[in-house]
Amino acid sequence: MRYFLFAAVLMLLSCHLLSPHSSVAEDSNAPFPQRIVSLGPMNTENVFLLGAGEHLVGTTSYCVRPAAAKEKAKIGSVMQFSVEKILSLHPDLILATGLTSPPQIEKLRKLGMKVVQFRQPASFAEICNQFLEIGKLLGLEQRAEEIVRQAKSKVKAITAQSASLPRRNVFLQIGATPLFGAAKDSFTQDYIALSGGINVLEDQTAGATSFEKVLERNPDVILIAMMGSETGIARQEKEKWQRFPFVSAVQNKQVHVISPDLVCSPSPATFANTLSIIAKLINPELKTAVQ
Question: Where does the record place a coiled coil (predicted)?
Fold first, then answer.
């Protein structure tokens, strides 16, 4: 239970930390790194997507995608990691996240480590920009550019398919206690907007809300991006919503559970793939998700 509670907090923070920014501790003209430690799932997936997974020598316990990430040495969790373990891996680059605290980064830098921090992106465009920056850091700019081109092309196609369909009110839930949803200043908002939907929390800069507010706005679709679709928290949350039969999403059986791993820490490619799933859930008229 403690693991699930911590993981739930992590998902909330990872989906909603803003102020996209990256900072390089040392001269970026140095040779391309050969031993990388990643302090977050998004960075880990990006490195693998670039084809540089063999250079990852350490990741967190939450870095589970792709499957090969599970085999890497674990340095702790996203917010609590062992500096000693990191040092023992002799990294020449550490990829930090918005959850990495300034004192932690400062300590690593004082020990001579090169740290690059990527704060949580606020949009699909910023997800792509950060990916391109990682590609530049690793000397894989052309590959990064091609992956971003393909992801943007897929997102454009999904958006075009959805544009002529009825616009539906959507609540994308990513937390339960307190109730938390996608707000306008989070990249999770783009899942809804690019699918042609209307975010019921689009007037909020933060995702904290209440059942009363969501019920008042009567969403046509409720998407639950939380752990435990069969027996865990997500299933319990779905059962809660089904107690309100007057809500359009419940009446029309449009309450769906989707993987938080896909929603909350996407690479450009994962964002595009997840968008194709979400677009079909929001728009049942789309007979098949965009390939």
Answer: none
